[in-house]
Write a structure and sequence with these properties.
Layout lengths: L6 H7 L1 H10 L4 H41 L12 H16 L7 H7 L2 H6 L7 H6 L14 H19 L9 H15 L1 H10 L2 H6 L1 H6 L7
Helix pairs in contact: 2-3, 3-8, 3-9, 4-5, 8-9, 9-10
Length: 222
């Protein structure tokens, strides 16, 4: 049924990619096209809150580790596992390829991914004892629950963020729950930032008009 979509759309986005939307629309190519554009719109609406969460997490964890190790390049002495060391080395190499040699700690920090910072909350390779218990819990001054619950929340948002940044479908998810989780995690880091971000957040209005967008009663926009 994807051949009923406009040829320009198939050419630009590929038949394989659009087939997932046709299946979700039960073979209705018109609704599938609208669903594709609404998926772009809702992904864009979630970018801002995820931006705030990723940067707040990065900077809060980096600040605590820098204080604990007495240096901004804390990874030089911290007990990172082999994968963590590989990611730091990769970030350093990227900085140096861009002409920043030697790479400054701040530049390396900016290259490290959301997944890297989230991994420091995990139990992997003894991170619960070497990172969470002595240091990293301080990066979440408004959280008093279990480490594993926090890690589960953050890691699920890493997956959501990656789907958005790789232009994948997210329309089938419980996006209201995802959105609430972003602000819950952000509140553990910085309630003031969470409040400011919510005041600018257009996600609720985008979610509310999904059915109107799919019916054609409201034009797609992003």
């Amino acid at each position: 049924m994807t051949d009923k979509l406009p040829e320009w759309m198939l050419r630009a986005f590929s038949k394989l990619r659009l087939a997932r939307y046709v299946r979700a629309a039960r073979g209705n190519a018109l609704v599938a096209g609208r669903l594709y554009w609404w998926n772009v719109e809702v992904s864009a609406a979630l970018y801002g809150p995820l931006h705030c969460l990723e940067l707040a997490l990065r900077n809060s964890v980096h600040r605590q580790l820098s204080l604990a190790h007495g240096r901004n390049d804390w990874w030089a002495t911290a007990p990172l596992n082999p994968n963590g060391q590989r990611l730091v080395a990769k970030a350093r190499s990227k900085c140096e390829r861009r002409g920043r040699a030697p790479a400054l700690a701040d530049n390396i920090v900016a290259e490290l991914s959301f997944g890297f910072w989230t991994s420091l909350v995990s139990a992997g390779s003894g991170y619960d004892r070497s990172f969470w218990v002595p240091i990293v819990h301080k990066a979440f001054p408004h959280y008093s629950g279990r480490r594993d619950a926090l890690y589960d929340g953050l890691s699920s948002l890493v997956l959501l963020r990656n789907r958005i940044m790789h232009h994948e479908p997210i329309h089938h998810r419980d996006l209201a729950a995802d959105h609430a989780k972003i602000y819950r995690m952000l509140g553990y880091l910085d309630p003031e930032l969470a409040k400011e971000a919510q005041a600018m957040d257009r996600f609720p209005s985008v979610l509310a008009v999904k059915q109107d967008a799919l019916s054609g009663a409201r034009p797609s926009r992003f």
